[in-house]
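The freezer alarm interrupted the setup, so I double-checked each line after restarting. Inputs confirmed:
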Amino acid sequence: MLFAVPFYAVACVAFGTVDPIFRDAVPQWNPLAWDFTQAQQVFTSLATGPLQGVAVRTIIYVGCAMMLCFIIGFPIAYFLVRHAGKRKLLLLVLIIVPFWVNYLMRMLAWVNLLSNDGLFTRFMKIFGINYNWLDGSPITVILGLVYGYIPFLILPLYATLERLDWRLIDAARDLGANSRQAFRLVTVPMSKAGLVAAGILIALPMFGDYYTNDLLSRSPSTEMIGNQIDFFLNASTQPQTGAVLVIALSIFLLILMLFYLRSTRQQSRQTAR
Amino acid sequence: MDSIMKRNKGSALVYVVWGYIIWSLVPVIIAVIYSFNDGRSRTVWQGFSLRWWFTDPYASVFYNPETRNAIINSLILAFVTLLVVTPLGITLAIGSQRIRGRGSNVVQGLTSAPLITPEIVVGAALLITFTRLFTAVPLGFAAQLLGNVTFSLASVVVIVRARLVSIGPSFEEAARDLGATSWQALRYVLLPMLWPSVMASLVVVFATVIDDFVITSFLSSGVNSETVPLRIYSSVKGGATPALNALATLLVLASFTVLVIGLLGLSTWRKRHGEHGGLRAALADVTQIEG
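Predicted 3D structure, all chains:
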């Protein structure tokens, strides 16, 4: 109940009408009388209009950040499961620590390092790299997303790989597969459901992120959909547009969630077998 | 040959792992160190001092009225949420555990959905609910409390239910066979056994609420309901002093203190009750991942 009612309210504002005098949103509580013209406008704008840039940018940023997260995160999870040995608990604890450090603190740390006289900026100047990191740079935003969300990927990845039956991979090696073949033909197919689930687990909050962007860039040229929702609901007179955007984002994320549920179910079936 | 190759590959990965750990922790450590900076800068070191922590009567974390106000708001919000959400979560977990058959799948799906819903969606939905539908709930503390209860309830239910599943129905049934009423079996047999999961959820909820930014921000109204994360967020944008680093450090300290207390409590409980696993199992309780 706590969860369903708010969504109904969002729909009512999104599909309601606009007061002609005060230009304020009038929610329409009767679903039969919902007016979809406003929603249609926003959806068209997302697909082809002025909001298209934001939508495309969101997908590109999240896609790049996800890829980097996997490139960095997978070897780490793999190492923890296969080669960590006696150090495993220590390494696990160190990898869990960022979980318990406030997200804003971690972003603040980078704002300090990347500002004009920050340590990192000064360090890069030694190599002749003079870059305005905090001035609407897509690289900073993507790296910020990676830094922020990668702990949330490594742990589920670790849990997935930990459950794998590694004897099968050893068997593949014994049967003549080289390490790359064993990885491609045995490890990846066996852990695929878990990898998908872990990826979606961080994709969901990344798609809704606006604070990383806001702290590290603050420029309209790097705005993502979350920034638009935040703007329309908190700082503008068009909460209706904000509500439609929330619905658009929810629909998109709902598809991802269904994928997530499917792959976790697949995974539990695989381990049960 | 094969084992040598394996070791080689492992040793190359060691550097990746330690590199990652350094990358993930050093920026935060630097931020903590700069909270002891003597100058006004958060980026250029000018010597050690405690001025941003205690000694400055106007600008230090503990004396500045704004940061002080934020700290108090954060603590109140976290404790009241704990008071509301813990009993509610335990009840829901026990209740949903009793539902059998097809209904149980639906209930499980519904309780775990909030766990993976992005906060901005929950925050925006609740904002619209409290400003348009239930206008009786004013934005500010009341709305923030309800919002945080909604968001953290799911984790309590999930943690407690995992414990219920591992306990199984046999203890309760044995109590019933020995003549306990269903209430007595619940009160004297089941609830005491749930204690570790209750402790774990207290830790998780406290950390979630005290760290929460998005929902608390969407449902806030001005200075009266400004919590520490909101304060940090709005000051990063301006030219803030190292007191900001000190404030963020406090936030980290708060969640680690609670985490350490919880872990110690959990492992002593386990030891006293003959459940093995110690610290590692306690860690698994809190992170919900089998270590």
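Quick read of the result. The beta strands of chain A are 17-18, 25-26.
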